[in-house]
Amino acid sequence: MKIDPIDLDMIFETSWEVCNKIGGIYTVLSTKALALQNLYKDKTIFIGPDVWDDKNPCPYFTEVPSLLMPWKKKAELPYGIEVRAGRWNIPGKPIVVLVKFSGLFQIKDYFYGEMWERYGVDSLHAYGDYDEACCFSLAAGIVIESICNFKRIRHKNVLAHFDEWTTGMGLLYTNWKLPFVGTIFTTHATSIGRSICGNGKPLYDYLPGYNGDQMAGELNMQSKHSLEKAAAHTADCFTTVSDVTAAECEQLLDLRPAVVTPNGFHGEFVPTKGKAKKAREVARKAMLNVGSALAGKKLPDDTFIVATSGRCEYRNKGIDVFLDAAKVLEQSANGRKFLIYILVPAWAKAPRADLHQVLDRDGVRQGQPLADPVITHALNNPGDDAIINRIHALGFGQNPNSDVQVVYVPCYLNGNDGIFNLAYYDMLGGMDATAFPSYYEPWGYTPLESVAFGVPTVTTSLSGFGQWVLSDCQNGFENSGVEVITRGDSNYHEVVGSLAASLRRLADGTDDYRAAASKAAHATASKAEWDYFITYYIEAYRHALKAVDNRREHIE
After folding, report:
1. Which of 25, 127, 333, 500 could form a disulfide with 328 if both were Cys (CB 3.0 to 4.6 A apart)?
2. Is the pLDDT of residue 553 over 80?
3. Cβ contacts of 54-59, under 8 Å, gap ≥ 24
4. Could you read off the pLDDT of 474-520 as tens digits, one per residue?
């Protein structure tokens, strides 16, 4: 696809998840970086929080002292701000500046006052991670200001892109201090929309009647919502990741995004065809071994392995639907074996010692399942964990003759979890299917990652990715590798039944049918490559630079 790039002198992109792997935004930035490097080699500077130390070094960052050295020698950063420059250890190896921002805590009230006076940001009701996010993003804004002043950017094309409400203060600071810099603000999910769903309230049937400011007061979200709304209205270009979230922004933030920038993926993260077969064998063996060790019986090699993964949001991510669908499968399995994984990080204490011992012996205690054979790691708060409580309530792990085995993995799969010791991408290719029956999903990286690895997936019409498949591809495993289930506020049990039926149909399909579904999945993923989706960002860049041009004469 031919890309028509624009002339840019520098792009700053700031996020709490730069070199800090927490959720989907990390995937957005780390996969997009190569496309930016191909277009604007080393003109992009990512800015992230330096939350690391010598005892806990950042595994994604390589410091390069010579990078940005002329600026660093002359930079006199205030408030104790310290920086480290280096490369992000991802395809493209972009430049990164990590920022220590603890000194901002002492001066934050001054900036909160300025932001109230200038932009109407209400920080009085702040709690939780608000102060930390604001201090980081203010420090990032000050770093951008310092670099721009050093490079004398007054008549150059420079953009500063800020992701999510956590960087809103940095955008407002940049707008205040650097009017010649074009600003872009991307909300990946509105804070108030996520809160409405997380509190069990219906979002979609009642969306036209919701007032964002009113709901922020009701749900004690005034400060985050106020900051996010101010950043969206102040930015030269406001973007979001899907049409479903654009409608949410229009209602709750009182502003329709200027550009929708769907999240792409990059094939660099997927093993080549030659390596994929071996990777699948390794992953399947690991997952079958863990399932066998927990159950006290050897699972057959043709066991159908299904997984869900992502952020630990029980209702929003459809984990409730996933577990209830697993129960429907159990009631109708009729000898077809299913191994169902919930790969969702929670408050894990440590890998189970008894499971570790069985795996170390490379054997199964035949007929001797482990106690509570549905979880791989001990939890700090088992009584408060919605997932383990629902697994127990549904009776999984209590019937040794069940054809459906559910296993909860409540930790990050970073290759060092103590049980699998495989990264998530290393395990993904070993699955037969994935399912992400989300209720609130602005985009949906997990199903996109799945099809990129050739693993058929199920998602819903409430996800941005699901809507993209319906509009740009064809629904159905055989057509796109994706089953998009229609979901709303009032059809929970219908969704549960549809998910169970979809998985059963794939499990009962012939080898040729499943191979065709895998091939279709790869084809769908190829349409979502950053080589295509980066054009939406270029549109956003044009929009922001046009706004700068429109005010340049006034500023002069």
Report:
1. 500
2. no
3. 58/19, 58/20, 58/98, 59/89
4. 999 999 999 999 999 999 999 999 999 999 999 999 999 999 999 99
Cα–Cα distance between 466 and 28 in angstroms, integer? 17
> How long a stretch of residues is the chain?
556
Residues 70 and 95 in one domain: yes
Same-domain check for residues 194 and 277: no
Nearest Cα residue to 442 out of 251, 190, 170, 178: 190
Model confidence over 319-345: pLDDT tens digits?
999 999 999 999 988 899 999 999 999
273 and 232 in a common domain: no
Answer yes or no: do 328 and 425 share one domain. yes
3-state SS of 396-426 is CCCCCCCCEEEEEECCCCECCCCCCCCEHHH
Do 439 and 550 lie in one domain? The reply is no
16 is a domain residue? yes
> At 154, is the pLDDT very low, low, confident or very high (cuts 50, 70, 90)?
confident
- E-assigned strand segments in 440-542: 457-460, 482-485
Q: How far apart are alpha carbons 340 and 388 in whole angstroms? A: 14
SS3 assignment for 312-348: CCCCCCCHHHHHHHHHHHHHHCCCCCEEEEEECCCCE
Q: 466-477, pLDDT tens digit by residue? A: 999 999 999 999
> What amino acid is encoded at 118 in this protein?
R
In which residue are the tokens 């050093």 written?
A: 150
pLDDT score recorded for residue 362:
67
As for how many domains the chain has, the answer is 2
- C-alpha distance from residue 100 to each of 64, 69, 105 (Å): 17, 18, 11
Question: What would the two tokens of residue 229 be?
Answer: 């709304």
Residue 305 structure tokens: 């392995």
Do residues 509 and 517 lie in contact, with contact meaning Cβ atoms separated by under 8 Å?
A: yes
